[in-house]
Design brief:
This protein is α+β, with helices and mostly antiparallel strands and about 425 residues long. The chain has helices spanning about 70-85, 110, 115-120, 120-140, 210-220, 245-260, 290-295, 300-315, 350-355, 390-395, 395-400, 415-435, and strands at about 10-15, 45-50, 55-65, 90-95, 145-155, 160, 170-180, 185-190, 225-230, 235-240, 265-270, 275-285, 325-335, 335-340, 345, 370-375, 385.
Amino acid sequence: MSTSTYSTWKAGAAKAVITPTEPMWLAGWVVRKEPSRGTISELFCRALTIEDASGTKLVIVSVDLIALPKWLVDPVAQQIEKRFGIARSQIVFCASHTHCGPEIRPDKEYFFQIPHEWMEKVPAYNERLKETMTRVIAESIGRVEPAQLFFSQTRATFGQNRRKGNTIHDEDVPVLDVRSADGNRIAIVFGYACHNLTLDPQDRRFSADWSGFAAEQLEHNQPGSVALFLTGAGADQDPVPRGTLELAQEHGQTLATAIEKSLADASELNGNIDTTWAEVALEFQAVTRKQLAADIASDDLPRKRKAQWLLDQLDVHHATLEREHAYPIQGVRLGQLILIAMSCEPVVDWSLQIKGTGPFNSGQLKGPVPFIWVAGYCNDMFCYVPTRRVQEEGGYEGGRATLWSWVPGPFTDDVEERVSRGIDRVMQQLQQERTQ
């Protein structure tokens, strides 16, 4: 290794356990009727700070929870900006989307029929979580040292598209390898587009599932390192097979082994950090009282319950239903690597389009950009993000998933165009940063 690159990058990493110390209701499955009953593996908050030669920093935060809503992470980002001068666009928050972590979203009390006494535990946990995230980020910043960055890519096949008759899938496993001046690994960041729900819903023990087992193996084999998982655009991909602890461990081991093999052929990253941020307005389909009345009269229980909730918002709480909601899209450039961090749950089409022949691929960018990484579940969570194809096919990811959340209803049919324009804008801004 040449010593010249050590003057380009610095990096530091930290982590902390966020596993609840008492039983809580678990997130992700409406079929659960009882709280958690122990722990299989710890849940973590992990952070990596990277600094370029100009002093510009990037912070990547990976948290073993089902979601990181904007109202949870923005106060943390504000604290970090106040203390360290790091802008919001320079911090990536990503949830591992484990379905074996505590439920932290208040609206799920109604939609998942969670007993109120268990939801009463959530505010205190969320406050501790924000404090922990802030502390872990600060620790990673305080540990920065000269470093080298490398990118590699491997593949995994246990994630398969869960939509009926759908063979569209993404097997890519992108890897960012961060090494110190003495050759030791500071951090390994890895991604995969697959739901984190191997374990049986009725197991009810805290666990980070397969991504946690992969991180555990990577950290064990690279002592002192921190392994951060960035969930891909896997809203319609599930682990296959699934249903047992042994399968979750097997998927994690398979993934970690592939990652470790890829490190030997990694390409070194050189250059600067550029970050950008865009928010696009996604519009919901109009809600009419006629439709709500029909839904309440239907035999579809989730649809009936959602219609009643919406009527309560209108008539009991005198609320105004949102017609549109801001959708954050974040862009990061690390030398030859582009990371597009999408919020919410994007279907796999998005990853293939961004990395492939879609309107916003690397061909638009001046200079060499051979590597593109697409992450989902970043910076906010309020819905699935379908493409036009998925909307037309319908089903859970196409719109039905909104029956279990606060959003008034499915998106209008131009959601793909709106999100695509936002991604295009982020790519163009990264290009402008590079040419200035």
